[in-house]
Amino acid sequence: MLAYRAGDADAFTTLYRRYRGSLHRYLTQHCGNAALAEELYQDIWIKVVNARAGYEPLARFSTWIFRIAHHRLVDHYRKHAPLLATQLVSNAIDDDADGIDELIDSLPAPSHETPHALLERRTLAERISLALAELPPAQRDAFLLAEEGGLTLAEIAAATDTARETTKSRLRYALAKLRHSLQDLL
Question: Sign of torsion, CA 39 46 59 12?
Fold first, then answer.
């Protein structure tokens, strides 16, 4: 690439021959569509040609060109994801009215809605509820007014009819006890 940057056109031919097979296979494996892979492949080489003057050997050439390929794939899928989803849904509806339900059922759940994530959140919520239940009532009340109600120290003191410093102490002790109870989660 340095020789090509310096103006040696034969250096480009050498690079093209060296990486044409592996780069094209990489794209084809990701796309599963030879025509699309060919289009992306040509785009990548155009990017190489356009980047010639500014090329700096910060990494091996193979790392650089495959990074370009990866980014080109990501850009393609970002641009075409809504269209692909629409095509999948319309094909499912055209083929079979129940097909859409099967398609939706076959899609993976978002990572925050997987059974493992839901169980983890439920377990965490139970642990926090138990830790809160173990607090003395005055500390629990001060903590919940601060966290759930969003009240300031002065507002909590007024709501509970206690001194500001008493409220501050209750919050400090509540936080310390909660940290101690939940330390394995921190």
Answer: positive
C-beta of residue 47 within 8 angstroms of C-beta of residue 64: no
Question: In the chain, what is the straight-line distance between the N-terminal and C-terminal CA atoms, in Å?
Answer: 49
What does DSSP assign to residue 96?
-
pLDDT tens track, the chain, 186 positions: 899 989 898 999 999 998 888 888 888 887 778 888 899 999 999 999 998 888 888 888 888 888 888 888 888 888 876 665 555 555 555 555 555 566 555 555 566 667 777 888 888 888 988 998 899 989 988 898 888 878 889 988 988 889 999 999 999 999 999 999 999 887
What is the enclosing helix (H) or strand (E) of 176?
helix 164-181
Report pTM. Answer: 0.46
Question: Residues 132, 140: contact at Cβ < 8 Å?
Answer: yes
Complete DSSP assignment for 18-46: HHHHHHHHHHHHHHS-HHHHHHHHHHHHH
